[in-house]
Structure formats: C-alpha cells, structure tokens
Amino acid sequence: MKKFLIALSMLAMGITSTQAQVAYEKAKPFDNVYLGAEAGIAGPLNFKHFAPLNTALGLKVGKLFSPVYGVNFEGLAFLGDNRWQTGSLGFSNSHTVVRAINLGLNGTINFTNLFGEYTPNRRFEVGAEFGIGYWITYGDKHIIQTDNLGDDTELTAKTGFTFAYNLGKDRAWQLYAEPAIIWNLTHGPGDAIQFGKQAAQLGLFVGVNYKFKTSNGTHNFKIWNVGDLNDEINSLRNQLNAKPKEVVKEVIKEVIKEVPTTKTQTISVENLVFVTFQQAKYLLTAPNKKALDSIKAGRHVQIVGTASPEGSKEFNDRLSQNRANVVAEYLKGRGVIVDEATGQGVQGVTSNRLAVVYVK
C-alpha cells in the first residue's frame, strides 16, 4: 500500500508539473455550458431475464469548470418495465408510456485531458460520469407497499464511462457513447442504502451535445502556453537591453510627435514617466503607482495613452483613452495638475500598451 501511495503521488506531481506550463483564459459564469439529448437501452445487471430491453430518452444540461472537471443535470425517461424493482417483473401494473423518470446530478471527469495535454482541437476523448439521482415510477397507485417494497420513489446512483467524438471545425458538437449502470440504492426492504446488481440497470446510451459559444469567441477553453510567453518576454527584454539608447530615443521621438507643445521645451528621459499595461487592460498595478508617486504635487503634466495593434480601431482608441484617464485620475488624487490626458490609439512600435506622462 505504501508503494502504491508513493507511485500515485509521483503520478499526480507529474500531471501537475506537465499542466503547470499551460494557463487557461479566465471564463465567465455562463461559459463552457452545453446542452445534450440522448437515447439508450438498458436491462437488469444480473443478466437474468435481460430481455425485453428498457428504452430510454433523456436530456442533459452541463457546465465544464475546466478541461478536466465538470457537472451536469440529467433527466432520463424510461419506456420499458423490465425488472427495475427487486423480485418483480417490472413496475407492477404501470399503464403509462413513460414508466419512470430518473433525475440525476452528475460529476464528470475527462481522462484524456487529465493525463494528456489539453488541446481545443482534439477529436476523441475518454471520460467518466458519476452522480446521485432520484427515481419516480408512474402508472400504478398500488405500487406503494409497506416497508418500501415496491416503493414508487427511489434514491439512485449512476456510474459510467463516456467515449466522445468532437465534430465540426470549432468542435462545437460532440457525439458520445456512454455505457453506464444506474443503481437502485433503496430497493428495500426499508430504505437502507445498498449497491446491489439485483436492482441495477446496465445500459448503453448515445447522444449529442452542443457546446455554446463562450466569451473568448470559441466553443471551448482558450489556452495560453506560459513557457512560450515567458520566452517571448525574455526575448523582448534582451532586445531592449541590447539597444537601450536607441529605444529611448525612439520613444522620445514618438512622445514629442504625440504631445505637441506651444512653446519650445526640452524633453529628456527625466521628464517622462512610463506606465505599462497588460494587453486589453487599463488597471493600475502597484509598480505603476510607485512610478507615478515620483511626480510631486503641484507639477503640470500631459498624458498620452496608447494601445497595441490587437483589436479594432474603435476598441484601441477607447482603450488608450481609458489608460490616459486612469493615470490622470490617480495623479489628480495626489495633487498633480493634469493639463491634458488623451488617447492616441496605436502609435509607433515601442509605445504600445503605455501611458506616457510628460512632466513639465
């Protein structure tokens, strides 16, 4: 047992370290939601009197919290009556088309993404589904008996595997097959919880899911390779360190062009404060505020906000103005006099994602 636990811990550490280099774009509450329809057949797990098979139809509504874990709510309607209750032929004297329904809350796990690297373009996936449910039998008012023999409501459990094939260019559709067991946990006598094959149904279900479009513009999770991003950042840093004077001259040239003055003034690096932002954001970080704190109260400043080329012109113009505004508001709160705060959209090649503060 000790060796097994050590091996399991090493496996978990390996999985974690493999996935640590990948970051997922933050999802909104209603992202990664799917709707599915299914049909299937089932029969007694003990294989006694397996025929006729019970047919079933169902619906699923689910959400994925990550490429590995998720949850769904499932409703199954059973049209057959082959030996769900222990010792009986079926659902007694049921005369309805739908003999019973099972409402279940299931957890899902994707083994393919757990043990392998997640990719949104993957075609085939293997997973598991397990959960708890509530069974209601219809059609016979005499089915309720003393001591839960023939009870018309039951507590159920579901365990199964899923074999899914993702369809379409965007992988929005998913076709799956699911062999599963639905356990009658309270088949009597009494309401004792018990897993027994004498009151369980072995079934095969097939269905299709549609994954709704998410806020990231796709139907799946969007990933960022942290290792590649770090390499890109280090490469840019090395380029900047290799030519510091040339880069500073280029930035000053662009700022002079972007901040026109009415009288001759000397602009140098000492007159400028650079505030950098993350892509598509305009929130001030602690390092940003520390840099702005070097500007003394009572000084006059002009602020120019810029954006990187990603996105539409309208978005970049609005983003650059927001960057200029947030810097202006912070400086005003510290007693600095802001003469002008303008957004210039995409400007030049070195002032992207910046708010440049010119201190007069």
TrEMBL record:
Keywords for this protein: Membrane, Signal
Protein name: OmpA-like domain-containing protein
Signal sequence coordinates: 1-20
GO CC terms of this entry: membrane
Domain OmpA-like stretches: 263-360
Alphabetized PROSITE patterns for the sequence: OMPA_2
